[in-house]
Amino acid sequence: MTKTFEYKVVIYRENMLGSLFLGGSKVDPVRFSEFLNKNGQEGWEVKTMEREERRMLLFFSREAFLVVLQREKNT
Description:
The chain is α+β, with helices and mostly antiparallel strands and 75 residues long. 25% of the residues lie in helices and 48% in strands. The protein has helices at 17-22, 29-41, and strands at residues 5-13, 24-25, 45-56, 60-72. A hairpin with a 3-residue loop joins strand 3 and strand 4. It has a single domain (5-72), classed as Translation Initiation Factor IF3 (2-Layer Sandwich), CATH 3.30.110. It is elongated and about 55 Å long.
């Protein structure tokens, strides 16, 4: 029997307030860990992840992660 998988793509980023007040916003590692642990409890595991800086409102930026999650599909 062949294993089949399902995938979920998520853009994880902090809210805009840090960027507006500080000129830039970094991802909070505690909240990011909570996000990963919550998905891990649902059977998702990180397949790949990429960090990027997202520009907003011309002068501000915030850190974001594009996360691809995978889990075995229940058939």
